[in-house]
Amino acid sequence: MNLRSDYISAKEEGRRADLRRSGRNAGTELMAVGSPPATGAVAHIASVTLAMSCGSRDSRLQRDDDSRQRKFLSYVFYQAVRDHKPVWMLEDMRTMETFYWEENISQRTYSPSEALLYAVVHDHQAYAQYLLSHYSEKALEMPGERICCCPSSAPHLAMAVRYDRRDIISLILQVAHRLPSLRSYMNRRGCFHLEDGKTPLHVACELLRSEAVLLLLGSGASPQAEDHKGMTPLDVILEQLGESKVNVLPKKLCLDHLLMFMPKVHFKMKSTLLADSNSWKKVLGEDTFNYLVGRSPAPLFLIAMHTILQQLPPSQFPQSLQELPIPTQFKSLLTPFKRCTNLDVV
């Protein structure tokens, strides 16, 4: 499909639709002006009724035509983001006047927030950077009731975690640290209807995104946060370890990351561990098990890491790690990933 020609055709079709509407309005006015004075009341009422009937039918047809046109335009914009078209073209399409056909003024065109969700899903890093640089706060607003109805959630960050968009995660966290109104952003619960009130850290643990887990923790995400079931991210990992022996290494890596950022262990499944201690000792190892259930203090390594990590400002993680006077092997444990690009929010 030639996207440029489709885009131009869509705008031209919009103009034609406007002309058709104008023509019908003009015709109605001419009928009213040209009605002969001697026409009987019954005949006049009949003609008006017929005109109203025809107008109603034409109105329905026009609404159907407009609806099809909007769906086509929405698909063209979606496809353009998916195909990583240039930012200038995407912004022209996002704000084009043809989108202004819906009666609800808040849903007439794509908001920066909705556009950012598309950019996250399709990993359009340049467009995500543009939206976050030019519409920082608006880009991270709730995208509207047609996408999510929970006003306190952080869908963009959760979506970036879900799709493993690491560079976009970093961009979003930059904005969250820079704006005072977004200080609690990364700890907001997700939609209760779609994500059970999980925070982005819950999602990262659930999907075993160990690098995202480390980046979120280092950036200030709380390992103590609970979803609407009272489950912490640590509970999510323990639940997965108890259910299956598949992907044990990434599960234990997520567990290690969580424990390094938890000077005080808090989780819901403590009674579950105690009820079947022999099985859990095999899964976790005796030292980790005893620490989690409170039978022994934290290992010296964990105590050292707690002290080190408390010195790091979340807004500068993980760059601040390189300045620490600690052995290289410790730094490698705390380096979440190498960024694929050098994108930053301006």
Total E-strand runs: 0
The number of domains: 3
What does the main sheet amount to? none
Distance from first to last alpha carbon:
34 Å
Helicity range: 55-70%
Counting copies of identical and different chains, the oligomeric state is: single chain
Poorly predicted sequence stretches spanning 5 or more consecutive residues: 15-52
- Overall structural class, as computed from helix and strand content, comes to mainly alpha
Q: With helices defined by DSSP (H or I, 4 residues minimum), what is the helix count?
A: 17
The Rg value, from CA coordinates, equals: 28 Å
* Averaged pLDDT: 78
Taken from the alpha-carbon principal axes, the silhouette is elongated
Protein name: ANKR9 protein
ANK repeats: 196-228
InterPro entries: Ankyrin_rpt, Ankyrin_rpt-contain_sf, E3_Ligase-Neurotoxin
Keywords: ANK repeat
